[in-house]
Specification:
With 206 residues, the protein is mostly helical. Helices cover 84% and strands 0% of the residues. The longest helix is centred in the first third of the chain and has 34 residues.
């Protein structure tokens, strides 16, 4: 249906932004820590927190959205994930700070990306559900390509790590905006319980 098609396009952006930020943080954290003289063993310790945060975020996002609704979960998740990304740019000189910010990026962007996956599974009827989720994940993978290229281009133009992370954090703001747009577009079209509570049955396309 037309509403579902619009929802698909709007949902692709949170996929793109969330997975892109996670990839930049994973790839760039070792370089940031190395520039600040932190040992490889401590770097491995710090990066592990990204995976831990992502695990916790993605595994609980669907349940939290079912209970509280889309906006109370996804909007803070993307905004706080962006804020943690900025913090990483300034806190990479300390193992403790870097681990904290990396873990928070993983947690909040895990909420965002896990929530996007859950929504993709909700808005499509069973015959096309795997296709819908697959396209969303493909857009996330595309973000994993584009965002590191943007960071690399900024670095080649003399940008410092803290300024690069501020730009990358902007993806969190964009993800939050499109989560709101998705909510506005789909609250009537798919009859999902977008304000919290058990999702309603989605009508099959005519």
């Amino acid at each position: 249906t037309e509403g579902r098609a619009l929802g698909t396009l709007l949902l692709w952006i949170p996929f793109f932004m969330g997975f892109g930020v996670l990839t930049v943080v994973t790839l760039w954290t070792p370089a940031l820590l190395r520039l600040n003289g932190i040992s490889p063993s401590n770097t491995a310790f710090v990066v592990a927190f990204n995976g831990l945060g992502g695990f916790l975020g993605q595994s609980t996002a669907g349940r939290l959205m079912q209970r509280f609704g889309i906006l109370p979960v996804l909007v803070p998740a993307f905004l706080l994930g962006g804020a943690a990304t900025v913090g990483l740019g300034y806190g990479a000189s300390s193992v403790a700070l870097a681990a904290t910010f990396v873990g928070l990026v993983g947690l909040f962007m895990g909420f965002g990306t896990g929530g996007a996956i859950a929504l993709a599974a909700i808005i499509y009827p069973t015959p096309i559900r795997s296709t819908g989720v697959g396209w969303g994940m493909a857009m996330g993978r595309f973000g994993q390509i584009v965002d590191p290229l943007v960071a690399g281009a900024l670095l080649s133009n003399g940008w410092t790590a803290d300024r690069i992370m501020i730009v990358i954090a902007g993806a969190g703001l964009i993800g939050a905006v499109f989560a709101v747009l998705f909510w506005l577009a789909m609250r009537d079209a798919s009859r999902i319980a977008l304000d919290g509570g058990a999702p309603a049955k989605i009508p099959r396309p005519v």
